Amino acid sequence: MQLILYGTSGCHLCEDAEIMLSKVIQARRDNVSFEIVDIAGQHKLEDRYGIRIPVLHDATSGAELDWPFDEERLMEFLHSLS
């Protein structure tokens, strides 16, 4: 599973989402990886995600999980992708 976490630098919510995602992935011990994409300066991404960040995007299905989410909601989202 390949995930993208959209956000911006200096966004404390984005940092919280990254920490939570790392923790959940480590606990699941699945073959899940993610990359962080900074939307700043990328006009298409800013238009799409600007007021929604952080947003977790599954590269395969296109499914997205918008903030706010907690660990339980994040685990449900990941489970739905499996």
What is this structure's SSE topology?
Layout: E1 2-7, H1 12-28, E2 33-38, H2 43-49, E3 55-58, E4 64-66, H3 71-81
Parallel strand pairs: 1-2
Antiparallel strand pairs: 1-3, 3-4
Protein name: Glutaredoxin-like protein DUF836
Pfam family, one: Glrx-like
InterPro entries: Glutaredoxin-like, Thioredoxin-like_sf
Describe the structure.
- This protein has 82 residues and is of the alpha+beta class.
- It has a single domain (2-81), classed as 3-Layer(aba) Sandwich (Glutaredoxin), CATH 3.40.30.10.
- Helices cover 43% and strands 23% of the residues.
- It has three helices and four strands.
- A four-stranded mixed β-sheet has the order 2-1-3-4, covered by helices on one side.
- Strand 3 and strand 4 form a beta hairpin.
- The N and C termini lie close together (8 Å).
- The mean pLDDT is 95.
* Strand order, largest beta sheet: 2-1-3-4
Q: Helix count, per DSSP?
A: 3
Secondary-structure element order, N to C: EHEHEEH
- Describe the sheet with the most strands: 4 strands, mixed
Class, according to the CATH hierarchy? Alpha Beta
Characteristics of this structure?
single chain; 82 residues; alpha+beta; Glutaredoxin; 4 strands; 43% helix; globular; Glutaredoxin-like; Thioredoxin-like_sf; Glutaredoxin-like protein DUF836
Can you give me a brief rundown of this structure?
The protein is 43% helix and 23% strand.
